Amino acid sequence: MPQLDIEHDDLAGNDSDDDGSTLLGVLGENVTPRDPQSTELVALLPGQEYSAKDKSIRLAFTQASSSDASLAVTLSVDASPGCGGIVWPAGQILSNYLVLKGPDYVRDKTILELGSGTGLVGIVAALLGAKDVWITDQAPLLEIMKKNILMNRTTSACKVAELNWGEPIPADIPLPDIILAADCVYFEPAFPLLIQTLSDLYKKKPEILFCYKKRRKADKRFFSMLKKKFTWEQVMDDPQREIYNRDSITLVKLRKLT
Fold it and tell me: How far is residue 136's CA from residue 227's CA, in Å, rounded to a whole number?
């Protein structure tokens, strides 16, 4: 797979904060339907039904094994704890990729999601058959994650844990085989902390799937810091890659430098 130079790769898309019309109220982005790129992106995201009464969203992912089969996730969404309490496109893209890879990819693996927010990506891994999934974030988001694993009946496979980037890994969190991270590049003071946590979790040389949306020029500083400890390659076996790349979303695999 070719190395993707994210530092100098100016992907198409609008880096500004858009206050225009929102196509889906619970997405973490304002999506203007007249924008061809945004319309294209929405088309590849899972089918969505939002309940304003319950403050929940149902996402239906199409499984590769059958065009008629879908994997459904219902999530409570709540912006009050911060931006992690809503559903972001990068998390849906990473979830789509897990569904594409199928149950064999996660079977018998210990999986850890960083910056889980609603817990979407980790819950998808559990619904695909993973038996040891850890969804982690800061304390204000733990309750919404616990609620969501209950709603999706994944309590036997999913465990919720507080994990603050840059701090020692809690003793009860096992070293993972797969690390999942979506939309974790957003708060510049946390950049070195996230990189430290990724490094601390690399004892078993896990596969790291890292999906992010380029929004600000400051995001380049994250990758300038990251390249001191990791290399990265763009995931090339996702047939949707060109579409979400055009909307400034990128999915990469990270590997720690030896």
Answer: 24
